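hey so u asked for the seq, here:
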Amino acid sequence: MKLLEGKVALVTGASKGIGRSIALKYAEQGAAVAFTYLSSVEKGQALEDELKAQGVNAKGYRSNAADYAAAEELINAVVADFGKLDILVNNAGITRDNLLMRMNEQMWDEVINTNLKSCFNTVKAATRTFMKQKSGSIINMTSVVGLKGNAGQANYAASKAGIIGFTKSVALELGSRNIRSNAIAPGFIETEMTEVLDEKTVQSWRDAIPLKRGGRPEDIADCAVFLGSDMSAYITGQVLQVDGGMLT
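ran it, structure tokens below
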């Protein structure tokens, strides 16, 4: 039996990178997959077509997770279309990097709203469904940057650190209803975002990692499968670092 057989999952920000990999891996493990995209409309449609071609019950929604009303509408639509919701993966995120002295208010607000407020929006909207079912797995995507900080990423680090506190608080509040809340903290993952870096920079990152390689989106997706499945039924309030030992 597949690990996610019979489960319905929602993955935000799934048109590319880690989110796309999670959606594909969830489908491979038997889940029905709902996902969101915002600006990457063509990639979002392509993912839906790819999943449906494999016989997967899947649907993409163009939705802005940073908007509370839109998040509430999204959760209601997913439950109406799929009948339930078992796994919520908050993956939507952006960067607006700059040194603090050069960072403007808009750069700060965009990152906090997209990365952190979006988690509040979707979890708040899904809580009623999870409580009625007396089950649910919430997986919030944080980062090793949220654990250690990073120069030029004060906004990003703050948003990701906030996700950790939020995740642990939700675990304490909802655990008695059999609703689990965990976070994944990726390290240096080689995606489309890292392709713009020069090879020398990328190699310096690899050399600093004990496993001597960058992570793959699939490495994060495998962790998300575990946290979404019943294999992690007694795990909540945790931050799982998937970083090749970077912060060891």
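The chain has one domain: 8-242. The chain has a mean pLDDT of 96.
lmk if thats what u needed
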